[in-house]
Amino acid sequence: MKLSRQFPLNALRVFEATARLKSFTRAGEELGMTQTAVSYQIKLLEDTLGEPLFLRRPRQVALTEVGERLAPKVGEAFDMLAEALGGIRDQSEATLTIHTTATFASHWLAHHLGTFQVENPGIAVRLETSQSVIDFSRTEGDVAIRSGKGVWPGLKSHFLMKSHFTPMLSPTLAATIGGVHEPADLLKLPIIDPQDEWWPLWFSRAGLQDVDFSRFPATQYGAQYFHAAAAIAGQGVAILRPEFYADDVALGRLYQPFDLLASDGSDYWLVYPESRRNSRKIRVFRDFMRKMMPDFQA
């Protein structure tokens, strides 16, 4: 028979407090129970054991011989449970697992996680990158940096930054057609991932409707990070979030021919399970992101 079925575990918890405090009233105050509820749990345990555990006397209770033998064993068992649970909690709070895309990880987090760890030396960071949207109930993780509308059932979301995009390419590639002077010039060059839904959105904003992308090879690299690497290598024009590539522009590896930006309404958000909003490590990381991101919104 399972222990949980053989013994009323809640009654054991009440017994431990009553034996330690020598009072039904004080045990009830500690456990947030009425004296009647405490008496009921003790009677339930006595009926299960078939032995009295306390001598009821006016204004005090005393342990019987059976109660005296049982009390230290139950106290030791609860101490062991508290130690085991405390160790798991301490170990869990010592590591923060962050899920994000490879692009956000390489172009923002990588530049700032060192500062977070200097400020919080007791928290180790484990970074997981994926293009998939993780399910916190199925995947181990504490927080995620996610692109979307900011509404996910069961998750708390904090706005981090707008997500907009524009074409970018190598200056060397632009020079092969005498420079890019108007949006239509981009269509003279290879387009990286022409099936990306960002392309028609940007060209529509630029005044070019119904661009036929089917004539371009259907290259797909899976992440904006790889699109940028291909563009830097001169393989074509990529559509990128320009703030992530300011260093490449400054070094002359990438070129943004137009100031025009487009958006699909999906922005960057910090998310985590609503039920874990009071976790210390999540709270610390949330406060760090609030400090580092000028547009952070609670």
From TrEMBL:
Domain of life: Bacteria
Biological process according to GO: DNA-templated transcription
Stretches assigned to the HTH lysR-type domain: 7-64
PROSITE patterns, per database record: HTH_LYSR (PS50931)
GO molecular function per UniProt: DNA-binding transcription factor activity; sequence-specific DNA binding
Keyword hit for NAD: no
Pfam families: HTH_1, LysR_substrate
Descriptive protein name: Putative transcriptional regulator
